[in-house]
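Project outcomes to date are best conveyed with an example. Our students and postdoctoral researchers have been running inverse folding experiments weekly, and each run begins with a structure described purely in tokens. The record below, which covers 94 residues, was selected by the lab manager from last quarter's runs and is presented without edits.
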């Protein structure tokens, strides 16, 4: 997948967060999605050709950049990547 496709996929994944009621905020210059006491970052790791959800369970952890690695979503999943992310967000973070 080329860089344009990565950007397009990231936009689509971020839209999933918004559709599920997450608010996009900035913490320390980083884009973070907040829902209740869950703070999630979506990061692309080129080496693995995958997106990863990083999460913090409090605003304090998020402000201190103490995020734990969550699930990975490889680009190889294609369209299934969007569906899998949606299912996991609902299951674990909503």
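After processing, the design step wrote out the following sequence:
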């Amino acid at each position: 997948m080329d860089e344009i496709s990565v950007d397009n996929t990231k936009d689509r994944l971020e839209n999933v967060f918004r559709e599920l009621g997450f608010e996009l905020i900035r913490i320390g210059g980083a884009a973070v999605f907040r829902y209740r006491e869950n703070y999630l970052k979506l990061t692309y790791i080129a080496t693995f050709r995958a997106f990863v959800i990083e999460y913090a369970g409090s605003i304090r952890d998020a402000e201190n950049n103490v995020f734990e690695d969550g699930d990975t979503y490889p680009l190889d999943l294609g369209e299934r990547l969007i569906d899998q992310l949606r299912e996991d967000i609902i299951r674990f973070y909503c």
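The chain has one domain: 3-93. Residues 3-19 form the longest helix (17 residues). The training component of this project remains on track.
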